[in-house]
Design goal:
Layout (H helix, E strand, L loop, with lengths): L10 H12 L4 E7 L19 E7 L6 H13 L3 E4 L5 H20 L6 E7 L5 H11 L2 E2 L12 E5 L2 E4 L3 E2 L9 H7 L9 H14 L3 H7 L8 H11 L3 E3 L2 E2 L1 H13 L16
Parallel strand pairs: 1-2, 1-4, 2-3, 4-7, 4-8
Antiparallel strand pairs: 5-6, 6-7, 9-10
Helix pairs in contact: 5-6, 6-8, 6-9, 8-9
Bound molecules: guanosine-5'-triphosphate and magnesium ion.
Magnesium ion binds next to α4.
Length: 279
Amino acid sequence: MSKGQWYPGNMSRAVSQLREDLKGIDLVIELLDARIPISSRNPTFSNLFEGKKHLVLLHKADRAEKEHTEAWLGYFKDVGAEAMPFSVQGKQYQNRLFTYLKKEEGRMRSGRFKRPLRMLFVGIPNVGKSTLINLFVRKAVTRTGNRPGITRGKQWIRIMPGMELLDTPGILSPKINEETARPLAVVGAIPAGQVDIQDAALWLISRYQEKGKLHLLQKKYPELEPGPAEELFEKVGLSQGCLQSEGRIDAERTAALLLRDFQGGFLGRLTLEQVPRPG
Ligand SMILES: Nc1nc2c(ncn2[C@@H]2O[C@H](COP(=O)(O)OP(=O)(O)OP(=O)(O)O)[C@@H](O)[C@H]2O)c(=O)[nH]1
Ligand SMILES: [Mg+2]
């Protein structure tokens, strides 16, 4: 579903920015979208995190299917990565993250360097980095001033004694190819103008069907009946008034509406990528 260039030119600047930000960071918290843990990860950046403590958050867990999130956690454990689910909706997630951070902070305090635990959130666009930072800011005790080694204008937020967070997240450009473009478009990680959203919307409908979850679509669009994805797409356009002329649907508007409803949480929980089967 190629449609022009994504993120042209900015990649190397983003990488050198991230490399700069990573100086002085003890813990990198990588946000993945729990619905697309494969496509929301860009392996290109992994070597930048080497030598740093690394925690994966399967974010927006409230939108993913619980059993699949569990399976993903098992997967990360198997490959030796620390991972936990997260959502801003749900105190239990926040408590679990804080318990983890407190443990790490204790390690810093009793360790050789005896300095605050410094953290950075990283992740692809729209994965929820700013939301998470804001959550921490609300809990913050103080905003500390600039420190040498950090790009001017950025600040450390002291979220509790011994714990500091860089106030600007590291933005990772998504890895876009045949496999990842649709899932990334569906969760809103690629601007709509840069992808074929009709293709992405049709793919989304077929995911609901394949997973036996048509009822989730029917809750929002009651007139839908089982059938080819194209037919369902057409029905959504007609029933939601995304019309061009003479009863023909405006496919672009229909696709945008479907993606908006998915991203807005109106189409239930759906995990779009499952743990790869061994072998
Ligand atoms: N359902 C759900 N939505 C969330 C959660 N966290 C963030 N969001 C939503 O995800 C969208 C993107 O969140 P941001 O925090 O702006 O994402 P970001 O990673 O800072 O995005 P960029 O600044 O574009 O890179 C917003 O609409 C948030 O409300 C979550 O835990 N669950
Ligand atoms: Mg942001």
